[in-house]
């Protein structure tokens, strides 16, 4: 990102500055925690905990590999039959972490920033839900392993490429990231919902946000085929599925950071206009069109 | 059994705390806790789809709206030193009526004076069909809701449509005359007209 902005970037800490996040985390942990005197203490402490916990819980349903004949287990913590719906519920609950963080700080700036950020998250969640429905129609069950298996012939990202782009942008907006980070950029400046937090509270909120980001790029495996190799030839199958999975996740994280550096920030009303007036009709239209095509050609799974 | 008692007891306690909490934000948070535990109870019943839908719809949307409204209402923490016992007679009677209604609904066996089915030892009927090939919750819902009971589905969507139109009409009072940005016009301004626009804005008294 630094090279995109033509500056040096952190290169002091480790080799090429790779240890910078560790140094940041260490600094945050040894800082003195400041608790505002007139804030609601229990909610204040629990809010970043909620954020971080939800991002970690959501990893429970993401599969890394299939229970192939050689392996007897599906490498997923819990093979829920409503796996995608579980992820959707987790992202709906993520709104709470932000609202409680903003409100319990007992400062009007933090509160307003939290409300705006929460409204943005809720708006783009609708679009995410509709796109998830589009993929579900193509698959037939909410089970994550099922979805990945259904992409054996061709990844979903190729026939449903516009849906894939819309999903990616909605995920960017959902995690308050990249061009849609008006509330978060205010957290880097003076006002924002994290303004009253220091040390562990801030560290947890921040890690929760990044874990959420990684989760969203994990969600993109719905489209790009989870751990399936590019083509079904034995050379690619010799590489284990987890490596394909991590390659794809890394690719998406790279694109996330790339988008963040490349695009200017959306203003809040433009952001909301985009979510409700552009993405919602488009994703609704895609649901209808995909189901129409599937019914017409009798390709329903 | 343990999980059931944990979930149900926390749900009952939180629902009592909803009405007893002084701070309205606390009562909304207890409200959310009630829904969490209810969805846990649904999972215990084997209705996984409904549990997730509870989380998404109730906790993720409805309670968020409650939270928005309550947080923005600027309610001071009400130091209501009112006498709560003033409401006891009428409130107690209404509460007892509700409790009786619950007993009527649950099972007729619990009320011994009514003629009951008296089935203390009943044979359990195993549905062998679902042991061979069981549908998921989602599949059964899809098979029933959209074919046999599609009228219910359409009626509920009409209700939601009415609610949405009502909300939009309520907020459309003055905002239809608001000057909006026209992105296409902004993009179509070339340099010559831009300078004209600047002259107009510079002549505005500040």
Automatic annotation (TrEMBL), chain A:
Record field: transmembrane: 41-62, 83-103, 123-142, 154-173, 210-230, 242-259, 279-300
Entry keyword set: Membrane, Mitochondrion, NAD, Transmembrane, Transmembrane helix, Ubiquinone
Reactions performed catalytically: a ubiquinone + NADH + 5 H(+)(in) = a ubiquinol + NAD(+) + 4 H(+)(out)
NCBIfam families, per database record: PRK06076.1-2
Transmembrane found in the keyword field: yes
Cellular compartments annotated: Cell membrane; Membrane
Key word Mitochondrion present: yes
Broad class of where this protein is predominantly found: membrane
Taxonomic superkingdom: Eukaryota
Source organism: Sphagnum jensenii
Sequence similarity: Belongs to the complex I subunit 1 family.
InterPro entries assigned to the protein according to its UniProt record, in alphabetical order: NADH_UbQ_OxRdtase_su1/FPO, NADH_UbQ_OxRdtase_su1_CS
Protein's UniProt name: NADH-ubiquinone oxidoreductase chain 1
EC number, UniProt record: 7.1.1.2
High-level lineage: Eukaryota, Viridiplantae, Streptophyta, Embryophyta, Bryophyta
Membrane topology type: Multi-pass membrane protein
PANTHER family assigned: NADH DEHYDROGENASE SUBUNIT 1 (PTHR11432), NADH-UBIQUINONE OXIDOREDUCTASE CHAIN 1 (PTHR11432:SF3)
From TrEMBL, chain B:
Gene3D superfamilies: NADH-ubiquinone/plastoquinone oxidoreductase chain 6, subunit NuoJ
Transcription regulation listed as a keyword: no
Pfam families xref list: Oxidored_q3
Entry keyword Nucleotide-binding: no
PANTHER family for this protein: NADH-UBIQUINONE OXIDOREDUCTASE CHAIN 6 (PTHR33269:SF17)
NCBIfam families: PRK06638.1-4 (NF005164)
Family, as annotated: Belongs to the complex I subunit 6 family.
Protein name: NADH-ubiquinone oxidoreductase chain 6
């Amino acid at each position: 990102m630094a090279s995109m902005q033509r500056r040096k970037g952190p290169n002091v800490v480790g080799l090429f500055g790779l240890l910078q996040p560790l140094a940041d985390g260490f600094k945050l942990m040894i800082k003195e925690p400041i608790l505002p005197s007139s804030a609601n203490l229990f909610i204040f402490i629990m809010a970043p905990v909620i954020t971080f916990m939800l991002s970690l819980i959501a990893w429970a349903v993401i599969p890394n590999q299939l229970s192939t004949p050689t392996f007897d287990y599906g490498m997923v913590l819990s093979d829920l039959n409503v796996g995608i719906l579980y992820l959707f519920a987790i992202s709906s609950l993520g709104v709470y972490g932000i609202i409680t963080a903003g409100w319990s700080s007992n400062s009007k700036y933090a509160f307003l920033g939290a409300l705006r950020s929460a409204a943005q998250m809720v708006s783009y969640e609708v679009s995410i839900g509709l796109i998830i429905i589009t993929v579900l129609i193509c698959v037939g069950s909410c089970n994550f392993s099922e979805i990945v298996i259904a992409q054996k012939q061709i990844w979903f990202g190729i026939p449903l490429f516009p849906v894939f782009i819309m999903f990616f942008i909605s995920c960017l907006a959902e995690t308050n990231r990249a061009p849609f980070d008006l509330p978060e950029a205010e957290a880097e400046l003076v006002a924002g919902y994290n303004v009253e937090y220091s040390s562990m509270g801030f560290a947890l909120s921040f890690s929760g946000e990044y874990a959420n980001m990684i989760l969203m790029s994990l969600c993109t495996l719905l489209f790009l085929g989870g751990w399936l190799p590019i083509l079904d030839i034995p050379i690619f199958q010799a590489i284990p599925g987890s490596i394909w999975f991590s390659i794809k996740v890394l690719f998406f994280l790279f694109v996330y950071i790339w988008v963040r550096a490349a695009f200017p920030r959306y203003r809040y009303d433009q952001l909301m206009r985009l979510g409700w007036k552009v993405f919602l009709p488009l994703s609704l239209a895609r649901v209808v069109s995909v189901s129409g095509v599937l019914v017409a050609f009798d390709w329903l799974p | 059994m343990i999980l059931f008692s944990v979930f149900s007891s926390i749900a009952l306690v939180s629902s009592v705390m909803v009405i007893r909490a002084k701070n309205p934000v606390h009562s909304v948070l207890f409200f959310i806790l009630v829904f969490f535990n209810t969805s846990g109870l649904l999972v215990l019943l084997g209705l996984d789809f409904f549990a997730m839908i509870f989380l998404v719809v109730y906790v993720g949307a409805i309670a968020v709206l409650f939270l928005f409204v309550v947080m923005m209402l600027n309610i001071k923490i009400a130091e209501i030193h009112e006498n709560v016992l003033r409401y006891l007679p009428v409130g107690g009677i209404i509460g007892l009526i509700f409790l009786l209604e619950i007993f009527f609904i649950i099972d007729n066996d619990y009320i011994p004076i009514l003629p009951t089915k008296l089935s203390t030892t009943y044979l359990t009927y195993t549905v062998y069909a679902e042991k061979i090939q069981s549908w998921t919750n989602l599949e059964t819902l899809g098979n029933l809701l959209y074919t046999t009971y599609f009228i219910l589905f359409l009626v509920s969507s009409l209700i939601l449509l009415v609610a949405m139109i009502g909300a939009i009409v309520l907020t459309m009072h003055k905002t239809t005359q608001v000057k909006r940005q026209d992105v296409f016009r902004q993009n179509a301004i070339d340099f010559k007209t831009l300078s004209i626009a600047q002259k107009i804005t510079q002549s505005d008294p500040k």
